[in-house]
Design goal:
disordered N terminus, 22-stranded antiparallel beta barrel, 5 helices, mainly beta, 777 residues, five-stranded mixed beta sheet
Amino acid sequence: MAMNNKSPRISGNPVLRASALATAIAAAVPAVAQDGAGRQLEEVVVTAQRRAESMQDVPVAVTAATSEDLAMAQVDSVANIQQISSSIKFDVTNSAANSANIMIRGIGTVGNSRAFEGAVGVFVDGVYRTRAGQAMQNWLDIGGLEILRGPQGTLFGKNTSAGALILNSVAPTTDASELDYEVTAGNYGRQMVRGAANMPVTDDFAVRIAGLWGQQDGFIKDPNGGDYNERSPRALKAQFLYEPSETFSAQLIADWSDESNNCCYGQIDVVDGPLQPFISNVLIPARGLQAPSENFDDYEQVLSGDTDQNITDKGAVLKLQWELASGQTVNSVTGYRDWSISQWNMDADFTGANILIINESLNTEMVSQEFTLNGVIDSFGPFAGADYVAGVYYATEDIAAHHELGWGDQAQTYFDLYLGFAGIPAGYADASAGIWSNIDMPADSTTFAAFTHWNLDVTEKFGLTVGARYSKDEKAGAMQRNYFSPAPTAVFRLLGVQPGPEYNDTFKDSAVSGTLAARYQIDDAMMAYASYSRGYKAGGVNIDNTAAGTLVNNPAEVPGAVPLDPTYKSEFVDGYELGLKSEYAGGRARTNVAVFYNEMSDLQIAQFIGTQFTIDNAPEATAYGLEVENQFLLSDAFSLNLDVTHIADASFGSDPVLGSLADREFAHAPEWAGNLALSVDQPLSSALSLFGRVGINYSTELYTNTSNDLMRGNQSEVAANIGVRSEASGWTLAAWCQNCTDERYVTQHFNSPLQGSDANGYVSAPLTYGVTLRGSF
């Protein structure tokens, strides 16, 4: 259902009822705790401030999960990360290079663009990944996850204006040899094998090798046979640890992953345009094919191409640490990443009629270096003590993008009808089969930053956190046309869209970001804080075939035409937060609350408008709300997790430059979202234990895109598993399901190219189930 402007916020929903349930549980837990000491919640250690600290002592909203937590919640990639926190969401459509987006508190990269870096920074083993799509592969040998919410512009730099996602590999150890394994089988032909071996070589040198192999059929079915959006990941990781003394260590991590499949153009027709009957009843049958079912729940589609996709990711990181005689610690992180994606013979009209074909690729190669100095200072001036981090960061990135467009053998027939509505006679427009546009889009960037971050103890209970970062960015981008159809009546010439002007432009900017926080330790188990953080997301040069305008801006086509500026401004976020972190009931309950308010200026917005990808800056936008995270040990066997995120408002400003987006809510920013999970871990005998988890993820209605006003309604998904564990042999066997009730819905609507009011949608994964065997020896 299309809607305009703001929708009314929903009240009286299950998340509110869940919050009331949590209040009742919190009141009941103290009574449970009186039965005896029993089990207590484990301390969670995080590195949100670039030093190891208890999560409850850090004036930052952070969610942490160990590898065991991730396994129990069935989270093995960023795709279903919302099972860990209701404040985070991941979305991707047809391309990991252009459309992958991580959002925190409703804020993320807005829209689809190959030029964009994320608003949520992704850091794997201390190295920044420039595209959210680089976190899409199945995680291999990951030891833990931290989700930092709110601007993280001091310690983690640019492109963390909404938050940061931190992943760290399981490190090698010289203690003992160990082999970990995991084997999964499920429906849709799912098979997954993971393994890792830790091998001490000497007392000060160890090696750890990990590998992954998997495959899974796609869940978008072709009624003529086959399916779309299959998976076939392959990955390897090798780590080397050298610790010759207590004051020096070196860790080298090298990794490679590759996936070739028929992803990711499988989607569903959602809103029929005026030409859909002609496509379904004439063009598709003319190819000797059956059109897809009109029943949304059948998840059927027909595409005209083989949709060949390949993604390769490889790189290395060298981490060095020196402990100085002064007590300070010097850290060096050197990173190299090389990430490539190619998609060939893609059905760019998304219909099954052979009309528009797209071939494209993108490669990004990045080198980064960071040095940090950590130290502790005894009392000085008005302060009882302090610890600090200071550092410098440098990175370069080179991007090579290629893009081709071609007409299929039914394009002429289609455009004879399509353009006929505009009074253009059949046969006048040239839509001859073959490639009609071929361009290259090179780009590069250089980043430098210097930063410092201090925790200052004023008294035993009261402290301050102060941080600042200076960042400087230089970027360049170009569009070089190799070929465009010379036909004067080429379709896109008649439409006035292409060829747009070629360009070669640069962008430079510098910014100061930082943080200021006050924290107060109310007692041993409760801490309150107030903070301000400024986040910075660098601007840049849009790399697209219409980034400098359309045909009317191209002086090679229209004498005297003036190209548009392909650059876009840097984005800033001022984040204000009040938080309370508490443990109670004898260490059997934990509740963390954060109230947040974010003001954004020059918010970067990418939109797909039928045949063009545009980037604009919204002069202002706001997002504010409330987060509550609860953990309860109901007994020695049962635990309950409940987290709720309320986004009271997340909307664009009213500036006329926004057009239909003025005063509208963000996409993928539900008013309410929550997770409720009940876990059990109960010995059955001295040798076996029963474990399991059932969780529900819920969110209210939301806009799915900035390019239209289509919405998705209230939605909930259930994930569950139950299994047994051998205490002596170290293995577990579990049966599991995801989306256990088989909810089927649109995750993102998009405007179908060259089809008027037609809209298609990417959809949720259906019910999946299977069994997993894990173990170590």
